[in-house]
Amino acid sequence: MFMKKINWRIFLLSILIVISSCKKDYLSFDYTDGNIRDENEIWQTDRQARGFLNTVYPGILMRYNLDGNGSMLASATDESVNSNLGSSVNIFNNDTWGSLRTVDDQYTNMYNYIRRANLFIENVGGSKITPATDIPVLKGEALFLRALYHFELMKRYGGIIIVKESFEATDDIDVSKNSFDEAVNQIVADCDSAAAVLPVSLSDLPSENKGRATRTSAMALKARTLLYAASPLNSPGGDAAKWERAADAAKAIITLNKHSLLSSAQLPNLWNYGSQPYNAEVIFASQADNNNTLELYNSPISYDAARGRTNPTQELVDAFDMKTNGKPITDPTSGYVASNPYANRDPRLAQFILINGATWKGKTVETFIGGKDNVTTNTNNTRTGYYLRKFMSESAFFGVGTAVNVRRPWVLFRYAEVLLNHAEALNETQGPVADVYTSVNAVRIRSTMPALPAGLSKDQMRERIQKERQVELCFEDHRFFDVRRWKKGEQLFNKPVTGMRITKAGSTLTFERFTAENRIFNEKMYRFPFPQTELNKLTKLEQNPGW
Amino acid sequence: MRYTYLTRLSIIVLFAAGICNQAIAQSTKDSRTFKGTVKDRNNQPIAGATIAIQEVTTSVITDADGRFSIDAALKDVLVIKKDGYLSQRKVINDTAEIAIDLIKALTDAGDDDDVNIPFGIRKKRQENSAVYTLNTKNLPQIPLSNVTNILAGRIPGLYVQQTGSAPGADNASLQIRGRSTFGPSGLKILVDGVQRDFADFDVNEIESVTVLKDAASQAWYGLRGGNGIILVTTKKGNPLKSSINFDVQGGIQMPENLIKPLNSYEFASLYNEASVNDGVSKVYDDAALAAYQNGSDPFKYPNNNYTDKFLNTASPIQRYVLSADGGSNVARYFILMSYMNQAGLYKYSKNDEYNSNINFGRFNFRGNVDFDITDNFTVGLNVGGRSENRRQPGNNESGAFLDYIYNLPPNAFPVLNADESYGGNSQFQNNPMGLIREKGYQSTIDRVMMATLDARHKLNFITRGLSANINFSYDAQGTYVSGLTQDYEVKDMTGAGPAFFRNKTPLGYRNSTFSASNRKNELWAGLDYNRDFGNHSVTAALRGHRFVNAAPERLDFRGQGVSARADYSFAQKYYLGFVGSYSGSENFPPGKRYGFFPAVTAGWVVSDDFIKNNKILSYVKLRGSFGQVGSSDIGGNRFPFERFFSRNNTGGGYVFGTGFSASNSSTEVSIANPEITWETVTTLNAGIDFKLFNNSLSASVDYFDLRREGILTPAATSSILGASLIVNAGEVTSKGMDLSLNYDKKVGQFDISVNGNFAMSRDIVISENGQDGLPEYQRTTDRLLGGRLVFVSNGLFQNQADIQNAARQVLSGRVIPGDIRYVDVGGTKGIPDGIIDNLDRIRIDERDFPKLYYGFGFVIKYKLFDLSTQFQGVYGRTMDIQGIVNSGPFTFNKESLKRWTPENAATAEYPRLGLTDRANNTTGSDFWVVSGDYLKVKHVEVGFTFPPSIFKRYRVRNARFYIGAFNLFSFDKVPLDIDPEIPSAGRGTNYPYLKTMYAGLRTTF
User: Fold this and answer.
1) What DSSP element (H or E) covers A8?
2) CB contacts < 8 A (A, B)
3) Which of B98, B167, B831, B906 is within CB 3.0–4.6 Å of B342 for a Cys-Cys bond?
4) What is the ipTM of this complex?
């Protein structure tokens, strides 16, 4: 009997306790458990405020693999052909590009990181970063990154919407785009603000901070932005003042004397951080990823299921001059022999391109018909007779069970480009003065090439500088935008690209040029189309002409 | 292997025998003869009523005067049963004559008319909302690893689509009624009152499966109710009669509808053709083609049929179940143990060290016990558990193995070189023989424990009919991965010298891992009240609940609320009900976190008032319900009302410095939407239940009208915001009906039972965000939910002139004769612009989810034989077969022979071939959309029950032998050899579609 009474009382009591304990708090539990934090905690902690800046950096584009299958932007130019015909990079080439069929648009991606930069810029001032003297420097890094991300959009779209604040969900963001010049001014202003506070160059950073933005990286971005702004595409009438600004901006970096060129032998170490990380030629580079995918995607096909993606064109190969006299191969006096085409060429040819007979990972590359690297039943087979060599490291292994990774950044700004930017801009304002020669020849002589002949006209000099950019900066994402800003798209990109068919009979090789791929370029392609999905959301955003 | 199975079997048999002996030993007591009478409420004697003694097998039947005499002992419990009356239990307390009053059961309120509702059981007659309960005694015993597949076609308004077939992964997706959201639509499953899965249960563990289809039945669950609820109850001990069941089943599973590969000659010829179409020259010369054709050099010119070589034509499956249930006056128990094993189809999987064949082994156990601690206090403990072992070849590479055998070119390499080494080359380094024989295996063991403690105390001293109830569950789950690793090398002997690829590694132990340490708790506590006052009866319940789903590596998922319901009936003829819940989710901000979800119901047994004694129409009930439930399903976006940052103090950030270690990081995870709240689902349900022909035919028809508002969906904001957020935007209506029919009739020696059901719905998008910028013909609004967005095809281009005269198609770089021609529908200005791009797609009212689905079946018993079958069908469903036609190596298979070529241009079924840049012909267009309707013979079974006399001396009460088949046959209009329910099975990386044939013996002691 006693038990019975106790039973129900205890029972009812326990139910009451359970019900009464259902306080509202149960669902308002502390979200900041673990790794989720509210905004205050981020800015009021030194480590986490700094950590926020560390996630603004990943917006820096690495350009070794645009389509998830190893394609590079070079294959959207006359530098190379992608072995994978179905790659999205071909949208640039086959006239199927459009606002509904975009490629490499980076639109959402860049604005995501611009938001991060803005959040940092807005909040770092009131943060608990210690010592407080670091605050302006870190803010400078964010300003540089904001400028860089706007630049990535500007070089694609021209005029863009400049975003200088972090919007809330409730803000009206249906705004019209800013003009090209406004974008340039914003980028330059951010670069100037950053340059004023950042450490001078990579060599001035402590070893654990190598890779952060520096004054020279902000100056290099400014110089390139001004070069783009002065170029015919963006300054159709021509404006000497713009060229002069561009030349001065490049010269300022040269004058600082903080960077220099690597030797010819060391040149591959630009992209091999195992040997020479953050070397003197690097002004600014992305983080050094540790992988072997570049080699897997681009090695010749006989190497462990490699996919031979980026196949350099004959147009690019032909741009490498003769080594002894520096003359182009089209010059009858150059000494070029069509039956032995790779002899006595600019040493950079062998450094950047795998040609038949080259040695790669201890084996000889065979791109002649029937050679081990020219197997037609393999869908990854070279489509030009060449494979990529630049960027790649022989110490990377990508076979099943034998992976060896290498550290490699994407180099965004390097000293050789600054020199060529300077030469180009100065030639446009002052003609081929000595300073122009000095800058171009520095790049040539580093690669043991003869200096440019004296007495070139301004137009001849322009051609030589453009060719020097084509050779020195090949595969580095420059050609795509250089040809556009030079307004030479119709001339250079609206025609087929060719390759070299090599036939081996006994020990004799015969060489025959052939059309590798047809290319189409038309007027509207100087600018990217804004994605249609974006136009659907912003009524005031105006599409670029022709799209 | 055989030895272990036999050992296992004999252990189970010995165990069974042990339990038997105990049961037999119990029934020896002092007995004497008792007499009694059975009468109805009007004091009329009832003839033919069965009187049995609990726990004893003998029984007697009343004579014409309702009189009986039976040998029993004092305190024995008599069980009195008669068709049409409610069963009764009676304890023999003294030696006087026993008088029993049986109460006539009302229509739909008999012993077999139970309907489960949350924390309660009702009679079907009393229920006003759309609820359907399927008792598993109507379900067959099929040796399938996933029990939900057995439900296909059996429950009106429940769509079961099998989505997989691999051992231990033959999953099904479940959907109640139509579809009413473009967001997450998963229904909630509650087993014994708490949220947990039941797919991996043994079917014998389950007592019933109940589907709650309308707001009134779902409102109890508030925010969990919006996508529909399935209630599963596990078996309880039967106090009337103890029994021991032993099931032994064996069967085979046979692959069907596999991809049909080409031989090397066909492959190389098509490859050449495709190369030429791509603008490249042929890659196989005539000598190579001849060599493939005559097979003169199988090492240099191999010709492999991998599916034939590596897949068996059948794999074994087996299942053993031992269960026992029973009880006494104060305790009831149900216990079960089962083991099932499903082997895979892979050949060459055994070597001296291990077997790498895909395999599924599962051990289930359950013990459900209830104790009446006092007359007023009952405690129940339900404990279930299972251990599942899934094995796969290599490094969890069953999918990779299937990828190799479906997608490697037949001429890729010789599977084995002349020296028995594995073939391969630089391009193809994966050898299926190497994978299955020399790459180890991985075994993934999932262990699940589920426990529920339920206590109920009557509070009659406060007021009669009141009781308190508390129900608490604890579920735990863990995963353990172990196995062996190994690797093989392949050798290319076609070149000048042999070349080796991959790295051979010796056999070793895999790094074992223990993961997924999940815990789930759910608590329900409150009061129930049931009482009759003359013709008035009142039923009410009130409960608070709380649940948590916790794991060490993430934040908890939580919910809590209060639920209440009250029902009133007058004279078991007029019914009124109310149900409501106040329910919350952590996904929403304070102030918008808790919602109140009410519903009302009404019912009227019309036949009791108007159509009494009708010869044809014997029973009619009208019922209706109206109410609202919510949904807080939001996908992976947690706490969308707050602006959250995540931090990682040791990594996740950019790599700086010469040490190349990732820096620490903090990121903005989401921006805040302070307005975010739940979705609401408002449903009107109107139904009619009726019976015809002396109750032999019963039918229920339900009409529903559902409106879902505030659908949780990503906002369609511009990229310049730089972040994403979740908003309540979007509205869908769904109207439709479902129907069920049952016909039971005894014709002479035949016992016939027929069931049928169908459900249809029309689901229309009223609004969805992101539609504004789209041309009208692409919008989802005012169209069928889930409608496809497709290009409109207009045959194939036959020649270059065709292409020149048509709009310019920019879906791929190359457009040549043999490509699909599309209609120029629109452009940037909304009118045809001479360019075929994404603006030329249109939204059509065709989708993968059927507009109507149905099932029917029958059971016929004749003497000792029985035959049963169940069909399932869908209508108004379409499939995109592009990926199936274009499957296999370089998209080639036997279907590719029907491609367009200049020679067979008139009869071509598919566009021209190509190796790459094929987007024009593979993009989603109506060219590839075909009907996915089917009618399937899901299940057939023939059984024979042995005459009881045969086994009587072994104390076997009943023994039935049966043979059956699952997924036996389907009728469809698909122009391909595929199963429309799982079209991609047998292609890509998917396990083949399986037909199951089995035989079994059930013995009851």
Assistant:
1) helix A2-20
2) 290
3) B167
4) 0.88
